[in-house]
Design goal:
Elements lengths: L7 H15 L7 E4 L13 E5 L12 H4 L10 E7 L2 E11 L4 E6 L4 E8 L1 H9 L12 H18 L22 H6 L7 H4 L26 H4 L7 H5 L1 H4 L10 E8 L7 E2 L2 H13 L6 H7 L3 E8 L18 E5 L16 H11 L4 E5 L10 E4 L10 H6 L11 E4 L7 H9 L19 H5 L9 H4 L10
The structure holds a DNA duplex (11 and 11 nucleotides).
Length: 478
Amino acid sequence: MGMAPFSAVSVAAMASVLSRRLGKRSLLGTRVSAPGALSDGVLAAPQIHAVLPDDVPCPQPAEESSRAPRFPSPSRRQQVLVTYSGQECTGLAEQHNPPSDKVKVLQPEQSLHTCWRLQDVPEALQRSVSNSIDVPKRKADAAVEMDEMVAAMVLTSLSCSPVVQSPPASESGIPPSRAACDPWKESGDVSDSGSSTTSGHWSGGSDISTPSPPHPEGSPKHSSEALSSPPADDGFETDSDPFLLDEPAPRKRKNSVKVMYKCLWPNCGKVLRSIVGIKRHVKTQHLGDSADSDQRKREEDFYYTEVQVKEEPAPETTTNTSPTSVSTPIIIQQAMAKPEALLVEPPVLEPALASSALSQSAPSSFWHIQADHAYQALPSIQIPVSPHIFTSISWATATSTLPSLSPVRSRSLSFSEPQPPTPMLKSHLIVASPPRVPLGTRKVRGEAKKCRKVYGIEHRDQWCTACRWKKACQRFLD
DNA sequence: GGTGCCGGGAG
DNA sequence: CTCCCGGCACC
């Protein structure tokens, strides 16, 4: 679903997803309230909880139908199971009167015609999700409202739209989005890449990670206790845990933009990925953690700024590729004007957190440089690096200490322990500006004949495997 | 355009 | 890991 602004369109889409699951335009899950004689429609709220499968789905007009109850056209009848007062009975939904939301249900067993009011879940969802759509409130009963709210929240989180407007009740703790999400909308392709990192991942955790959209300082209200107090989250962990934040990597990761938040406190360049994290950082590290001061809560907003991090494919501008340049560069631009912040310096992590986080992710703390093909074998070299300084390692120094390697052969740089580096680390790697070795780009084309030439393309099966795989030929080495 | 092969995806 | 292929640099 991408980063589409959470508009009525996506509501409609969500609703259609829902209806797809439940059977298109079915009444399954529809809550109806029977007026008058049957019940008061509140506590004993009857529910249509099953729909026989033979009903014919109607084409779904896009938006209107998400407001108008999904219901067969008057000419069609839809069989439903209706429960009320603990009793279950089948019925035939005969007629729907949209203006009044009334549904006429025929219950043959009781030879009863009943009239129900209709409230279906997507509508509840819509109501809770978009406060720009005016939906009249039908019940004052809080419990029923909560039911719908919960259902809506579940659906909302399932649909994984990161830009979620706060429900009208506004106690949910989901901060409202605002214009700062524009880069996300406009990038159009945010669901990939790093996006992998910040775009609405489905946080398995129970903590604050709402499908973390970048939500900006616009709403000082939202950093209330609901967000900041969970004991298990300490900002950095939740912000950079690669396992929580990693979502299945999409195919391409070009031009993805993610928004990070940088602490503006003097001498603190800490960059976090969530607004909550940065606020907590500012609050705890700089403002002091004096609990309930409202003023402090507001002040947090002034001490961080939003940074857009754009990840782009490597342009390969130079004629040489350094032996270690393996990552795509990240272009970091400031959303708010602060030219000196073009480089994101390594975050000043709380030492305990930093060491624990890094030592967990890179226990052996070695740079491991080696050739990656057997036929390119070279002695592998390990450079011990303290995890604490690994982001600021001087590449020039590091490489100068290496024995002279053929620059074209030793091109893979990786941790000795296979583990996905967090996007944070990745960006630091790039910021650390690897050295450019002013020598040949790639392997100089060999003079020797290659399998392709020797056997021809029609005898591809006789090629060496490397040639077959479009790798450097192993059979006719230079 | 053909070739060699790097980088990365899929399974 | 194997297998495959897009895409780039070189010819």
